[in-house]
Amino acid sequence: MLDLPLIDAYLLKLFRFRTRAFLHMEEARGTVPPKPPGSAGYLYVHIPFCEVLCPFCSFHRVQHRHGQAVRYFAALRDEIRLYHAAGYRFSGVYFGGGTPTVEPAELVATIDVVRGLFGVTEISVETNPKDLRPDVLEPLRAAGVTRLSVGVQSFDDQLLREMERYDKYGSGEETAARIRAVAGMFPTLNVDFIFNQPHQTLGSLERDLAIFRSLGANQVSFYPLMTSPTVERRMVGAMGLPDQRRLRQFYHTIVQRLGREFRPSSAWCFTRRGQGSDEYIVAADNYVGVGSGAFSYLDGTLYSTTFSLAGYEQRIAQGLTGITTCHRLSETDRMRYSLLVQLFGLHMDRATVLAQHGPQFFRRLWGELLTLRALGAAREDARGWHLNERGMYWLMLMMSAFFESVNHYRDAMRAHVKDELHEPVTLCAPLGPSLAPASAK
Ligand SMILES: C[S@@+](CC[C@H](N)C(=O)[O-])C[C@H]1O[C@@H](n2cnc3c(N)ncnc32)[C@H](O)[C@@H]1O
Ligand code: SF4
Questions:
Q1: What residues contact residue 201 under an 8 Å CB cut-off, 6+ apart?
Q2: What residues form DSSP beta bridges with 271?
Q3: Distances (CA, A) of 376 to 1, 207, 256, 265, 269
Q4: Which of 47, 223, 254 to mutate to test ligand 1, by most ligand atoms within 8 A of the CB atom?
């Protein structure tokens, strides 16, 4: 019999080897990057403030302080204007964090600026269960928000306590009631869960799925618990560490339980059937990230902004962007990146990759495409490749491995600014010394 965990581990190792150069960042100038030709991409706006800092969280976030946050939002709006003045246009905007709703009035003012400059039609905002209140949500609805995403992680009170969220964000039952009360308020209401938590059982996951389906929300994202050396050190006392051998069974349960009502939009996001287009979306290749600790991908170059909040304010005051590092991917890595992003969106369109990379795409990535075929991970037709559940599972693993590489980079960058973060961070740069130039603060 095939030893599936062994195959998973081998494939992941190969994937990490193949993609390890993606994040070999070098110092960058900080001016607005050249605008890629063609289509409008996405704007990502990072808000790094939270009321509590959850031990498992792998994002760039700091303890919320009102004065600092107000100055930060003002700098964000200036940075967004810089991109507009340089000719950038966006079709949608995503406010992520951290917790973008920590300063609702500042958030609305920033949405107004983005709408005024770019006329975006899609506006997505992340929030936490405590902020599901009319005084926060009504202004967001009036500002044109089309998607609200709530971080729930689990309805299991024991797990919420371990995640240190029970006291701050309420019990599972309270959170479920708050979500029910706002269902229908925005075109898309997404609920975030984290699966494969160290003390999560299959029964607890099944209960989360059953409660979720009773809420009236129309989208759900199930992220596997991802770590980094710093996250693991924080987690080990509070929650324990995840066991990767359980991932396959958890994932299978999620896909099976959601299957009838929800269709997958990516390897970890599921949208209620009949809502939104069933036509598949070709993943946006270009996006701009603004704020502190944000990433951009533009025409084959990956950029990162400073993780120093003070440094961010200074750079914006000098008329620069927040960008401090970048890495130009090799031609083959750009193809690998396209393959990863498009397959993560469940389909890879032959005509699209041909237009982006030419016929050499199929010659250079023959090994990757052969592996897909050998694994029975995708159906191939004249239009392209379409992932099945087995393929979705592998793409979920690969995307989480990619995010863990990003987490390593975040760890290294946050270690440079540890005095600003109000929490202990230990320096570690497991992806190599070129990863985090000391002067890139
Ligand atoms: C940046 S948070 C924003 C949501 C909001 N701050 C909250 O926690 O309610 C977005 C989502 O990332 C996910 N997340 C955070 N840390 C993670 C980790 N270590 N592994 C997997 N998912 C994680 C959580 O599901 C979270 O809801
Ligand atoms: S999970 Fe959400 S609330 Fe918790 S620290 Fe991360 S961003 Fe903040």
A1: none
A2: 219, 263
A3: 16, 31, 19, 20, 22
A4: 223
Closest of 98, 23, 399, 431 to residue 224, by C-alpha: 399
Q: Residue whose CA is closest, atom 15 of ligand 1?
A: 57
| Ligand number with the minimum distance to the CA of 98 | 2
Paired residues of 290 in beta bridges: 45
Ligand 1 is surrounded, with C-beta below 6 A, by 50, 56-59, 96-97, 99, 126, 128, 151, 153, 192, 194, 223, 225-226, 231
DSSP 142-172: HTT--EEEEEEE-S-HHHHHHTT-HHHH--H
Name the amino acid, one letter, at 226. M
Which residue's CA is the nearest one to ligand 2's atom 3? 50
Ligand 2 mean position to 361 CA, how many Å? 38
Q: Is the pTM of this model over 0.85?
A: yes
- Quote the strand ranges of 84-134, DSSP E: 90-97, 122-127
Tens digit of each residue's pLDDT (9 = 90 or more) over 28-66: 999 999 999 876 689 999 999 999 999 999 899 999 999
Report which of 32, 35, 43, 41 is spatially closest to residue 286, judged by C-alpha positions. 41
pLDDT tens for 242-273 read 998 899 999 999 999 998 899 999 999 999 98
As a whole number of angstroms, the distance between CA 99 and CA 296 comes to 20
Tokens standing for residue 13 = 């190792």
Cβ within 8 Å of residue 227, ≥6 positions away: 56, 58, 235, 241, 242, 404, 407
- Dist. CA 234 → ligand 1 center (Å): 15
pLDDT in tens, 93-102: 999 999 999 9
